[in-house]
């Protein structure tokens, strides 16, 4: 007979997988990923992120809100400006590891027909991130 702990393990494992999938949704959008990549170099303002990513100011601001809601990015007011930075050094390490993995398997990922580059919409202002919090 299974103990309560043994019966709850599949649920705990399923919750862990769901949480991991939710984290990866934060990285899945090309705009959010370009912001995270830009922040690897250190804290930046919205204007600097617009310049580095080529995204519109509105797009950057919306995605920063999403990334902030999901605790992937931190913000700190500095006078008239707000500086944004990665919330944890392991986020930069994960991006580096991703590059290393892609060096080995990029062709397969490029040719993969299972994942498309659909662009999910960003949540309306003030509603949180629907992409990260469905």
Descriptive overview:
- By secondary structure, this protein is mainly alpha-helical.
- The chain has one domain (14-111): Winged helix-like DNA-binding domain superfamily/Winged helix DNA-binding domain (Arc Repressor Mutant, subunit A).
- It has 5 helices and 2 strands, in the order ααααββα.
- It has helices spanning 4-28, 30-39, 46-53, 57-69, 89-111; strands at 73-78, 81-86.
- It has a two-stranded antiparallel ribbon.
- Strand 1 (73-78) and strand 2 (81-86) form a beta hairpin.
- The longest helix is centred in the first third of the chain and has 25 residues, at 4-28.
- 18% of the residues are buried.
The SSE order reads: HHHHEEH
Question: In the CATH hierarchy, what is the superfamily?
Answer: Winged helix-like DNA-binding domain superfamily/Winged helix DNA-binding domain
The DSSP helix count reads 5
Largest sheet: 2 strands, antiparallel
Distance between the termini: 37 Å
Q: What characteristic shape results from the CA principal axes?
A: globular
Question: What is the average per-residue confidence, as pLDDT, rounded to a whole number?
Answer: 86
Strand percentage: 5-15%
Low-pLDDT segments = 119-127
The CATH class is identified as: Mainly Alpha
Structural class: mainly alpha
Order of strands, widest sheet: 1-2
What is the fold-level CATH name, i.e. the topology? Arc Repressor Mutant, subunit A
Kindly give the count of domains: 1
The assigned CATH architecture is Orthogonal Bundle
* Proportion of residues in helical segments: 55-70%
Radius of gyration: 17 Å
Strands, total number:
2
